[in-house]
Amino acid sequence: MKIAAALAAIVVALALQTTLAGLVFRGTAALDFVLVVVIYISLVAGPGTGLLAGSVAGLIQDSLSSGILGIGGLAKTIVGFLAGLIGTQFIVTAPLSRFMVFVLGTALHAVIFMGLYVLLDLRQFPDPYGGVAGQALGNGFVGVVGFQLIEWLPGFVARRRAGRPLRR
Amino acid sequence: MALADIRQRPGMLLAAAIVGHLILISAQVQTASGLPVLQTMTFGAFSEVQRGTMSIVDGVRGVWFGYVALQEVQRENASLKQEVQTLQVRLQEERALAQRTDNLRQLLELRERAGLETTAAEIIAAGASPEFRTVTIDKGESEGLAADMAVISPAGVVGRVILASGRASKVQLLIDRNAAAGAMVERTRTQGVVVGFGDGSLRMQYVPGTSDVKTGDLVVTSGIDGIYPKGFVIGTIENVDRGPGSYHEISVRPAVDFSRLEEVLVVRTPPLSKQVPEGGDK
User: Fold this and answer.
1) A2-163 maps to which CATH number?
2) Which fold has domain B119-270?
3) Domains in chain B: boundaries
4) Which chain B residues are closer than 8 Å to A7 by Cβ?
5) Residues 6+ apart with CB under 8 A from A82
6) Predicted confidence band of residue B97 (pLDDT cuts 50, 70, 90)
7) Which of B9, B18, B28 sits opposite A77 (nearest CB)?
């Protein structure tokens, strides 16, 4: 059930990513919804599930893009694993700590992703710091908000149901 | 169930995922030389394995040949040492043989030059007493040797036979205290008598003080003594002193190195003192 939910979340994130592909900040996508979902799954489910989710999501994302299949997958796998590790080793429930995980996860993802491309002499990323920083902040914001929404939504629905008058 | 089990080992799962992704990436990327990265990486990795294997093999081989096989080297070393010793002995033998051949060649040349009837002999012993400078040669009466026969060498006069037995003879060296020979200075033909002094040197006596002799003059046999053939080298004048009398006191350095004598020629021409005059009785 959890796997299905994770796959569904990844699919939704990919759909959002492809829809909002035009949202670019200084040459770098302003948001990486797939990465946000991977980090979220990792924090919730642990490193094993996190790296599997990152691997699957990254491979799908790579296959839908024109890049080398596996580079994004590798980056998201490592990020998913480390985020899951942090989630299991530390208490990451406060918005700020979650925000930091998203920001650092995004930065690490960029380092691995861009580093591999540069290392293989396949692509250059001139002055990537601003774009990466913007994406990290954006992912952090979206991630924290998403976390809050997901945690808040079940309670809200329950309250709504409890407060609704019975119709006879 | 299996997936849940795998997820309990995230470390291994991560390693497998990373390797899988790297293989996937490598299969798509080409190096600058146009070869796929996967192939290059595989070759590079395997070449390192080969290098490591080779290093291990070389190490084992080095240990074997450097240490274990040294027992064989030790045996070989001992054998080579023995061979070297054998060769050194053989070299000395060859060298001695060459020296002996050279000596004999010189003797042969002397024999031909002198035109005398001679017998080559080898010195087999030195004198029994240091007071008497004699040697023993390996030829005796059976080879026609007799007392008072002159003994010469390529360098000069050696001495005379004083005793001949069947197969050996005793030779009195010219440097013996009791030895003497008729001599003359080759340059001026001044005559005298050379006597031994016992200490390895010679003295030329009875040379008039008015005679022209000087250091460096060659002294040869005069033949007047009836033993030594005329003209054989005795030595070189080392020093000339005006003696108290009417004669020079002349020191002569022998031409022959008596300490290194090995082969000599015995002049079998009978001494004049023993020659029978033609028409006379024996």
Assistant:
1) 1.10.1760.20
2) Thrombin, subunit H (2.40.10)
3) 2-65, 76-115, 119-270
4) none
5) A42, A47, A105, A108
6) confident
7) B18
